[in-house]
Amino acid sequence: MSRIKGRFEQLAQQERKALIPYVVAGDPGMNVTVPLMHALVEAGADILELGVPFSDPMSEGPTIQLAHERALANGARLRDVLEMVRTFRQQDAATPVLLMGYANPVARMGYAAFADTAVAAGVDALLTVDIPPEEVEQVNSELRRVGMDNIFLIAPTTPDARMDLIASQASGFIYYVALKGVTGAGNLDTAEVASQLSQIRRHTQLPLAVGFGIKDAASASAIASVADGVVVGSALVQCLADGLAAEEAPEALIGRAGSLLAEIRRGMDHTGS
């Protein structure tokens, strides 16, 4: 059983929802990411989502685009991200780690080489924003070979037939994009999210995690009442950026992010769901 499947099953038994923080590996510093990962777990993270820095992160809003720029300026590349996961695994063998990024760095490494290196480092899953389900078979065959999950996005505009195709290719969980547009945009409509999740559940039994637009304990709590997991990205990345702008030391940056995530965790755990 994969770590992700096991984690969702464990949470279901506890009647709790998954908290999935997203940060960009190498931002705000190369030496910050691994201790930050541990701090997020201590603050209540159930699954960690690491952004792989990329020069053209087209699905991201300004906050996360700037984080990609900072990480690239710090020298972070795909192999560095894999090494960060390997280091994280020296102390944490239980928390699932998902890499989120774009096809180019993975394709340049080679799908087979990536799969072998990633699973050896302790990566559990991959989400590539720009590989559509119609073109995923090559990478999916390599991920399946090593037992890694492939996470897919479903958007509010995804038609029913395409949901069925995505569900047939996905494993681990499905990531529902709660808002149209890029990360960090708009305001959430929980009733609309609930309706969309109900539609997706007609196509799959995989857990459904929701991201985009979740900024604080209140929005996380609302979404946790209808979803299996909550993804927090832009708010956390902006929290780190604020600390960096204030020239805080790495320990303070990590503490700042951990405090925000702990607050969100408390909100989720008091949904009564």
Summarize the structure.
Helix content is 49%, strand content 14%. The chain has 273 residues and is of the alpha/beta class. Strand 8 (208-211), helix 10 (217-224) and strand 9 (229-232) form a beta-alpha-beta unit.
The low-pLDDT segments are 181-185
Largest sheet: 9 strands, parallel
What's the helix-strand series? HEHEHHEHHEHEEHEHEHEHH
Per DSSP E runs of 2 or more residues, the count of β-strands stands at 9
Question: Beta-sheet strand percentage?
Answer: 5-15%
Query: Ends: how far apart?
Result: 26 Å
Q: Structural class of the secondary structure composition?
A: alpha/beta
Number of helical segments with 4 or more residues: 12
- CATH architecture label name: Alpha-Beta Barrel
The CATH homologous superfamily is termed Aldolase class I
Measured on Cα atoms, how large is the radius of gyration?
17 Å
CATH topology category name: TIM Barrel
Describe it for me?
The chain has helices at 3-14, 33-42, 62-73, 78-89, 103-109, 111-121, 137-146, 160-169, 190-200, 217-224, 234-245, 250-269; strands spanning 18-24, 48-51, 97-101, 125-128, 149-150, 152-154, 174-177, 208-211, 229-232. The chain has one domain (3-269): Aldolase class I (TIM Barrel, Alpha-Beta Barrel). With 273 residues, the chain is α/β, with parallel strands linked by helices. Mean pLDDT is 93; it is low at 181-185. The longest helix is centred in the last third of the chain and has 20 residues, at 250-269. Helix content is 49%, strand content 14%.
